Amino acid sequence: MTGLKLLGLMLYALLGGPLFVLIGTAAIFGFLSSGVDLTAIIIELNRLTNSPTLITIPLFTFAGYLLAESQAPQRLIKLAEAWFGWIPGGLPIVVLVACAFFTTFTGASGVTIVALGGLMFPILIKNYSERFSLGLITSSGSLGLLFPPSLPLILYGIVAEAPIDRLFLAGIIPGVILILILSGYGAFKSSRLKVPKTPFRLKTALVSLWKTKWEALLPFMLLTAIYTGFVTVAEAATLTVVYVLFIELIVYRDIKPSQISGIVKESMLLVGAILIILGIALGFTNFLVDQEVPMKTLEFIQEHIQSKLVFLLAINAFLLIVGCLMDIFSAIIVVVPLITPLAAAFGVDPIHLGIIVLTNLEIGYLTPPVGINLFISSLKFEQPITKLYRSVLPFIALLMVALLLITYFPDLSLWLPRILR
Questions:
Q1: What is the pTM of this model?
Q2: Which residue, 194, 211, 240, 184, is CA-closest to 397?
Q3: Closest residue by Cα to residue 403 from 366, 377, 371, 375
Q4: How far apart are CA 56 and CA 63, in angstroms?
Q5: How far apart are CA 36 and CA 26, in angstroms?
Q6: Which of 330, 232, 218 is nearest to 275 (CA)?
Q7: DSSP state of 228
Q8: Fewer CB atoms inside 10 A, N or C side of the chain?
Q9: Which of 139, 140, 157 is nearest to 148 (CA)?
Q10: Are 402 and 178 a contacting pair, CB within 8 Å?
Q11: Cβ neighbour number for residue 231 with a 10 Å cutoff
Q12: Quick check: 149 and 237 in contact, CB under 8 A?
């Protein structure tokens, strides 16, 4: 690729051009300069369509958007408040748990901030500072990405050709650790401010559980169905859509049939963007493999890095930078094919690598200057972006501690997949 073409692509990227056009153009230039027929890109697209788990992306996305458009967020907040409000730091824990559950199904943290942030922010600022409240909601927006059936987990499994059912199990303990660490910080702030707790009332808790039972059952139903062998992951995605449609249209009646077409359109816009980037990126990855870029990179790293621990630290630093510059879907599609062979050479389990990647990219959502959650919160709450920068710094520091635990203690990710294999 000539220097002039490379300069043109860089300028295009700086001007905010669509990522799939940038990647596709780079792939075409690369293949042409190497004398390789452009049908190689089409071959990769054909391989993508043969993936049996590809159908899970539109199905789980549609189910998540259905939940977002219903009254599920309000019911979920009441449930979390009834069961966790009595704990020191109960209100922050309510926010963390509710947002984690919601992000698990929407897969896009911006949806969570918009759907739940507007409900929780006025409640939080009655007892906490504006900076803490903004930081908590912004940080909670991507907290559920490690729990099944998170869309980034599925996408990583497709790109890395890793078993998605094992990834679903691998993210549970690390995801809980992230929530516990941030909950501890919330409890600390609450004790200093002497924030009153919500008394636990069994009747209220049971009533809230009964009202939310249909949504609360969903993740347990999915995991049970998959790991008892009753359904495959793709069949579980179909079951989820049917189940959510049934409870929101017929049981709760939160959504009218006339709204379905609009929800389909909105959710498929996200799916379309993901699939376009995925298809084009696979073609570009084919060019990089053809040019032996991964092998040359591996040789360079092996010359300068001999320790697995140092390699993992370097991967974390790299992914944090990627995470704050790209959205999580693009980052997974572009970066994972490059780092997977490198990690394999250092003996890193691909399942463990997946949890490391997603945790890094989750933190990248918050990382200044261009973490996407910062801009979504800035728009949602009409606050200067610089205030959001300051508000998330303590949360980033805590999440970094969790990241180090997840990175250097692989059993946190691999224990559940190992015992339930």
A1: 0.79
A2: 184
A3: 366
A4: 10
A5: 14
A6: 330
A7: T
A8: C
A9: 157
A10: yes
A11: 15
A12: yes
Q: Which DSSP string corresponds to 342-391? A: HHHHTT--HHHHHHHHHHHHHHHTT-TTT-HHHHHHHHHHT--HHHHHHH
Residues 148, 104 contacting (CB under 8 angstroms): yes
The letter for the amino acid at 380 is K
How does pLDDT run across 309-360, given as a tens digit for each residue? 888 988 888 888 777 767 777 788 778 888 888 888 888 999 999 999 999 9
Instruction: Report the pLDDT value the prediction gives residue 395, as an integer from 0 to 100.
Output: 94
Tell me which residue has tokens 């490198």: 342
Q: Are 127 and 195 in contact (CB under 8 A)?
A: yes
124 and 137 Cβ atoms separated by less than 8 Å: yes
Q: Which amino acid is at 352?
A: H
List Cβ neighbours of 320 (8 Å cut-off, separation of 6 or more): 360, 363, 364, 367
242, two tokens: 């049917």
The closest of 73, 102, 56, 114 to 271, measured between CA atoms, is: 56
What would the two tokens of residue 335 be? 């970066």
User: Identity (one letter) of the amino acid at 285?
Assistant: T
Using one digit for the tens of pLDDT, what is the confidence trace for 354-391? Answer: 999 999 988 888 887 767 788 778 877 888 888 888 99
